[in-house]
Design goal:
This protein has 2 domains: about 140 residues, no CATH class; about 350 residues, Alpha-Beta Barrel (TIM Barrel). Helix content is about 45%, strand content about 10%. It has an 8-stranded parallel barrel. The protein starts with a strand and ends with a helix. By secondary structure, it is an alpha/beta fold. Helix 12 links the parallel strand 4 and strand 5. The chain contains 26 helices and 17 strands.
Length: about 700
């Protein structure tokens, strides 16, 4: 079901007409004929008006509709009604609904609502509108320029080592380009090209995970329409497995099973209904038919697909699965069953299916949510580990529940932190327990980046990663899940983990710097020292990770009028600063960022104008990260000062000027490197048009 429509304050529009915003944001990202049909005009009109807005004539890049459609949806969410969004990206309403629900919770990121928008159509400009457009056009032309590396040309300037790294242990990443919706209905070469696999092998990556839904990979008796294309997905999966094997890389499927069904779909299976939520119901896992389905579906998959590296499970999560997937179940059968028993049972059924299939696939149970976050006690977590089949490997989030203090404010981490190296005490205790019980153990860490700043391929804080690896060695960790959906870029940071795994206690950080950065290693180490010193000051909280302006960075359009909207997960920040600064007082939040920006800026200055390709790449990504951090800092100040615009008017103008300069710098970086602003589950956070539009808005605020 598509998100509900609501009337709400719209994003600021600096163009005289809404249809101009449609052209400006979408020209050359979709075919001209599509824009013409959408706006009810001819193609010549679209070309003329694009030129009038300062855009150069250019051919359409069809990568945006195939690999950047999330960007297009996000950029038009406040501009076009559903009908025209479908028309823009050439899908029907059913397909749009699938994208919103299945592309890593895109609907949630957009706020779980759709702003009501009137249909946008072309109408001729008045003389006054033409004059206003000409002024805007001059600014557009002064900033817009051709890309040095076109969007989606991710590896144009990256140098390879030309050698395969073989090291102890398992190192699994999410593919840097892998879709988060229905990847196995696509040709694997589009998101896992040989070029990427070769670079993974060079950096010691030997596993890649993909989202999988069992009902689409095996026959699904409860709704056969869901599994109709399972033979195609299996064929594509087998092809991908075979291609990756040539580079020593195994494929792992990430399962969150068994998935719930709409209540009205159960039919003759109504006796299996367990927990009910929002019109959906789980298949009660205490029913033998449910367990038999899970067992048979997994076994059938593994009997027919050969060479799968493994299955990674998550049994306490956002998706409704077993009746105890979250606290306080309303299933009359499961309400008296401990959740650790339910979670362990799901894993054990899958492990039995793997064993009986004859497959060598490994089952990795991710214990995310086996924690106070889901109202589990420590005793329940350890008891759940006791219940697991001994052949199951155990993964824990390294930094979960790690106690931290920033600016005098104490809190604890859930996950997604590089700035605070783990492991936590509960992770140590759980993994030691698992190892004592004979389980192979893994730590889930974020290696390249995290939601602390996901718009760059990697954050060059090598010393913090090294500290984390050393800490994990003390509890016997040799295997890693290195990323969530973000962080799969084949960077030197992935290579460090492999190098460390190979050398163990003989690994020397100084030697690693020299091997990777050659004659520039001393300079790089000094700069990285400043990045690390600044980054540990990051005002970390789950709210700052998900809701602050740092994710979209300069692409956030600062509200001019009051917007009473809640910021949304890794998407729109609005002016909801009290949400994203929580639990920090705004003054502390800003002061922590000042510490971070000071040190990060020193590091960037040290690397400026370096001629080494490896150092230049590092410097560019460091500058892009600095821009995102600074944008968070400036928008927080803006939202705070805006509460009294009359008193703070001059300071607001000054902040707008700073953000304009910051945006221009990020725009320059975007033109230089196609990786800036990209993340697999969100596609590009911005295009050059978003950043130029922000510059135009800052001029208006000044």
């Amino acid at each position: 079901m598509l998100p509900k429509l609501i009337n709400t304050a719209m994003q600021p529009n600096i163009f005289p007409c809404d249809w101009q915003a449609v052209i400006f944001r979408n020209y050359a990202f979709v075919p001209t004929k599509t824009l013409a049909a959408l706006l009810a005009c001819d193609e010549e009109t679209v070309e003329r008006e694009a030129s009038r807005l300062g855009l150069q004539a250019m051919p359409c890049d069809d990568n945006w509709s195939k690999r950047g459609y999330i960007t297009l949806i996000r950029n038009n969410w406040f501009l076009l009604p559903y009908e025209q969004i479908c028309q823009l990206i050439d899908v029907n309403e059913s397909r749009l609904d699938f994208i919103l629900q299945n592309d890593d919770f895109l609907s949630v990121k957009l706020g779980n609502f759709k702003p009501y928008c009137e249909k946008v159509t072309y109408s001729p400009l008045t003389e006054a509108q033409i004059a206003e457009t000409e002024k805007l056009s001059k600014t557009v032309k002064s900033y817009a320029r051709p890309y040095e590396a076109a969007p989606f040309d991710f590896f144009k300037n990256q140098e390879g080592k030309g050698e395969l790294v073989c090291a102890n242990g398992v190192r699994i990443v999410h593919g840097y380009l892998s879709p988060c919706g229905d990847a196995l209905m696509e040709d694997g070469e589009t998101y896992m090209p040989d070029e990427l696999l070769e670079k993974y092998a060079e950096q010691g990556v030997n596993g890649v995970w993909l989202h999988g839904t069992l009902a689409t990979l095996s026959p699904y008796p409860f709704d056969e329409t869901v599994s109709v294309d399972y033979p195609t997905r299996r064929k594509n999966l087998q092809t991908l497995i075979n291609r990756c094997a040539k580079y020593g890389v195994k494929i792992y499927l990430y399962f969150n099973e068994p998935r719930a069904l709409p209540e009205n779909k159960f039919g003759k299976y109504a006796h299996l209904i367990g927990r009910k939520e929002n019109g959906y119901a789980s298949l009660c896992f205490e029913k033998e038919e449910t367990r038999a389905y899970l067992y048979n579906a997994v076994k059938d998959l593994l009997c027919n697909v050969q060479g799968l590296g493994g299955i990674i499970t998550i049994t306490m999560s956002e998706n409704l699965t077993h009746c105890n997937y979250r606290p306080d179940t309303n299933c009359p059968i499961c309400k008296n069953i401990p959740p650790e028993k339910s979670a362990a049972a799901v894993n054990n059924v899958i492990q039995k299916a793997i064993r009986d299939s004859g497959s060598k696939a490994e089952l990795l149970a991710n214990l995310w949510g086996w924690s106070p976050f889901m109202e589990w006690t420590e005793e329940q977590t350890l008891r759940g580990v006791e219940m697991l089949d001994k052949e199951i490997s155990v993964i824990c989030v390294s930094e979960y529940d790690l106690a931290i203090e920033k600016g005098g404010v104490k809190s604890k981490i859930i996950d997604y932190s590089i700035s605070n190296p783990g492991p936590s005490e509960i992770t140590k205790k759980t993994l030691r327990k698992a190892a004592e019980n004979g389980h192979k153990i893994y730590a889930k860490i974020q290696t390249n980046n995290s939601w602390e700043c996901s718009a760059v391929p990697y954050l060059p804080v090598f010393d913090l990663l090294y500290e984390h690896l050393k800490n994990l060695t003390e509890i016997g960790v040799k295997n890693y899940m290195l990323t969530w959906t973000l962080g799969g870029y084949p960077s030197p940071m992935l290579g460090m983990v492999a190098d460390y795994s190979q050398k163990g206690e003989t690994f020397k950080l100084d030697e690693w710097y020299e091997r990777v950065y050659g004659a520039e290693h001393t300079l790089v180490k000094e700069a990285v020292g400043h990045f690390c010193k600044g980054f540990v000051e990051y005002p970390f909280s789950i709210d700052s990770l998900y809701f602050s302006p740092k994710t979209l960075g300069c692409a956030n359009l600062w509200p001019i009028e009051k917007q009473n909207l809640r910021s949304t997960m890794v998407c729109y920040a609005y002016e909801d600063y009290e949400n994203w600064t929580n639990p920090y007082p705004v003054e502390i939040y800003l002061s922590q960022y000042e510490k971070l920006l000071k040190e990060w800026g020193i590091g960037c200055s040290l690397l400026a104008n370096n001629k080494s390709k490896a150092v230049a790449e590092l410097a560019l990504f460091a500058k892009a990260a600095y821009s995102h951090f600074q944008s968070d800092y400036l928008q927080t100040k803006y939202a705070y000062l805006k509460e009294n615009k009359e008193r703070n008017g001059e300071e607001i103008k000054a902040i707008a000027g700073q953000e304009k300069e910051n945006t221009a710098e990020l725009l320059s970086l975007l033109y230089q490197n196609a990786c800036v602003g990209f993340e697999a589950s969100n596609h590009y956070y911005y295009t050059d048009r978003n950043l130029i539009e922000k510059i135009l808005l800052m001029d208006k605020l000044r």
